[in-house]
Amino acid sequence: MAESTLNFENFFNIIKGECQTSDTTTFSVDPSTESRLWDVPVATKQDVEDAVRSANEAFKSWSTTPFGERVDKILQWKHLYEPHIEDFTKLLIAECGKPRPVAAGEAKEILALFDHNVQLRMPEERIEDDTRIAITRHVPVGVVAAICPWNFPLVLSVGKILPALLTGCSIIVKPSPFTPYSALKMVELAQKVFPPGVVQIIGGDDSIGPALVQHPDISKVTFTGSSATGKRIMASAAATLKRVTLELGGNDPAIVYPDVDIEKTAPEVAQGCFVFCGQVCVATKRVYVHESIYEPFLKSMVDAVSRMEVGKADSPSTTMGPMQNKMQYEKVQDLVADSKAQGYKFALAPHPIEGEGYYISPSIVDNPPPTARIVMEEQFGPIVPVLKWSDERDVIAAANGTTSGLGASVWSADVSRAERVVKIFVSIVPASDVVSGNSSVIRELYDASPSPSSLTFSRSNLSDGTRSSCIQCLRAGNECILAGSRRGGDFSRFRRSHREQSSTPALSRANIGHGQHEQSRDDEKVIDDPIYAELTNPGDALQILAQLAANDSRVPNHPNDSTTFGHFPATPSAKQSGTDTAFNMGSQIESTQPPVLQSTLSETETLVIGVLGTDTVGRLIHHYAANYHTFCPLAPKQLLATTDPRGAAVDEPFLLTVLLTIASKDEPAYKDIHQHCWKYLKRHLLDILLATPSTLRVGSVEGLLLLAEWVPYMQLETCSYPNMFPRNLSAVEDNMAWSLIGQAVRHSYLLRLDKASFRETAIGESQELENRNLLAWIFVYISDRQISVRMGQSFWSRGPSLSTNFTANDFPSLRLRADAEHKYAHVLQATIELTQLLHNVHDTLYSCKERTTQMVRRGDYNRYLDDFRHSMSAWKDRWDGLEASPKLNCTLHIFKEYVRLYANSFAFQSLLSRAAHHTRPAGENRTATSGPRGAPSLFPRGIMSTAEGAYVLEAVDAARGILTITVQTSSQAQIRYMPFRFYVYTVYSAVFLYKADVFGTFVGTEHTEVANLVQHFIQVLEEAAISDCHIASRFASLLKRMWLPDGQCHSPKRTASSAAANHANVLSQHCELPQNTELLDDGIRHDFASSMQVPEPIQISTPYFNLFCPEFSTLESELVEYGLGSPDFPL
Predict the structure, then answer these.
(1) Which among 102, 470, 910, 983 has the fewest CB atoms less than 10 Å away?
(2) Nearest alpha carbon to residue 790 among 744, 733, 863
(3) Range of the structural domain that residue 991 is part of
(4) How many domains does the chain have?
(5) Catalytic residue among 106, 188, 247, 603
(6) 786 in a domain, yes or no?
(7) Model pTM score
(8) Is residue 710 part of a domain?
């Protein structure tokens, strides 16, 4: 064994067993003083190639080296290291800023790593029988790349090297540029033992890691660091099918029960939070303390932390040194500043530390909100939130409510309870560590896993002693009675409410056999008996069969009854006759002891209890009610006002999940929560698609309609189309909304909600359910008509009967005194009437392409538009004076103006289409090689000189009205949360105005007024957006490309003349206009491009659309399908 002669003043990359320098060097700094440390070489691309080539050559011989010889080499390396423990301790103090005890502990831990790894064995697994032998061997994978972090540079690099060497792999280490020194020296020491190329290390900048991960000759990557970097490594490694091992960050919770010894436990918890300034992946990042001991525990914890001394790492009295690097120092300072800005209370406030070094004093935040950054993010620094808890399920849900990996700890004097609780945590790899004293801590270390496991509780162990075999009966307060084996029957009549059982006297034969009661039962028998039901189709037959199975004890005595029952096994109650059978069957079943079953929580309960927590669910429901519900008051008030989210998860699983998904979609703080909700929602959507029995409820229809109004745009990327966002997402959102509404229509027909449109009263339904059914069906009708018009598709539903005139009085659930300010019922009636107008305009003007083309050519559509104007005038007289809440007033009038624009724009497009076709010479099919200087004006003698002038002016007025309403509305309180369709209506009007401007509608100052209005509208959209992903931001960006100069929309610059020439060229090429067409009048037409630049035309993979010569269609389909679905608006 070679003697160690390490020089701790010079540092090198190790390639092919040699110490190598580089033309470029870098250095780190001592975090205690910010003074410069030693220079280290920066590896080049060629260095990476040389190292990989050398590692592959070394692998050939090292992989065939006998296992025992590999172990001997590793032990030789250990013996070389032992004399240098103090040298490495000093090195760790300098590069990491660790207090001496922490640095010495890491240096000594290396010996334990050596001892542990050399004891590992990989025996063959041999299975044989008389005919064959199966042998399983563990073989080396090849060259391994190890990317190491900055917080424990020595332990984590050696911890990656030893397993690789033991298994016969060669390895290349890439240390962190913040802390490269100890790893460089450790690998340099290994060269005295191992053959060249077996262990190498190359330091440098951030380009080295990606080069190793992407290299085709690297077989495996092991990485320790942040989750974000880990995701990028996994994605990059997938291209070459590399094996990947990731050890990522953690947001580690500690749960403290009220039975702990506070004086002993609090200092231990504090030490787990602030060791090495919290820069440890398994350090405690969140502390949950039971409310009964919260104040004394917090005080004891503050006292313990206050005794920690912050100072230079090499000082013997120092407990906490500096942050390791400036980047992490600034991140923690930002978290501290954010907590202060949010007004959170500090149990231990940070104080400034003067002088050099990255020092931050420890701080404790007192019970911040569960969604605060300080709780949701991994701090990796000396600031920790302490939170109260009262309910065990809630605190477990809160502890699990992170996408980061966990090192969770449970502190309790009851070891069995601690062991039980940790088994509920997700993705567990058990590793127990019992702390001395009265408290027991069960510590679980496991990797990042965003998918929670289902929580299972035994119904026999509920705190109130309830014994129940199904969760629904438990929630409803009913005793659950297991029915006999009658498949397909409805046995809900056997469930007895506890209150009913206690208050209803026992019935006997003496008081039930005669008189009026008997007559009532006979009448009821005729009505309810399924044998009298209609049989018109196979579906009716199945319904009768199911009802007979459920009611077989009450089937009348027909001549063939005995033969019918002869096919079924007799039960004790079936042997009785008459009324005895009807009433004694219940007592017979109730006397049977129900079995105790293990019942798992439903998926929505798991989301509410095990992922989000009831407190978070309550806040999200309140956020939805305050910001979204007013726009579409479809969710039941009972659900929005619930104080029992768990019960809501049972009663309305899909609808509740929809509300949570919508409420979390527009808030950056709820991003992770939104992903969880969306994941669970997709499972519900599959059940709805398959129409499983559990989804056949009106809440499913309500949820589908609400989801169609607020499609969760952040979650629309799929593995099949990962790059679709945000280029053509607008069209995707409309497609999804159309599909969801179609599913709502089909579900409504399954539930026979369409009967509600005829004011039929369903027998046996409560008034509340009838009101919900009617409201759901009305919204189905409205949503179907509006989305179908937007998409240019056929209607999904027949809708309410045209003879039914629904008024505000038909919607009592919208006329509650608490909602008086909104005028929900009146706004709904006004919307129904507007929707009917929209429906008739669509059916009349756009019923089919042939009819539309015929009307355009003949120009005889004016009578329909005149009648529409008359109907719209009557609507205004009736509803313009309605004083609703600001949100509803805004959306109602936007919808009104949209209907006006939709109808009257027909005249404008008719004029444009006729102009395009009439200027084409008959029988000629050629493409003009040159064109006029500008796009043709449709109004060379003024708008009123044309037959369509009045309609065009009304369309322009409606479009301007939509934008005016929008810019006068609060962008952050109202526009931000509007349903998607209202964004489309507003953008529709902006595109119409652009098109009208291009073809000469505006002259003089009117053009400037319109351009300023659109620019103001774009600003409102930008203010409403909370991120670049928000629909308002995407629409604003697209409108900039259309309306604003290149300097503001980052498009290639062009001159006004070239823009005009392009307009003319496009027009002449696709409409084949003669060069001297009479449509052109440059003296009259105002070309908006003279003052604004226009983007260059681009090639897009969509059906051809020419802005200046369209085939006849609705403007909206042009906008969504071709305009907003493109990266640039085509000209």
Answers:
(1) 470
(2) 733
(3) 841-921+934-1123
(4) 4
(5) 247
(6) yes
(7) 0.48
(8) yes
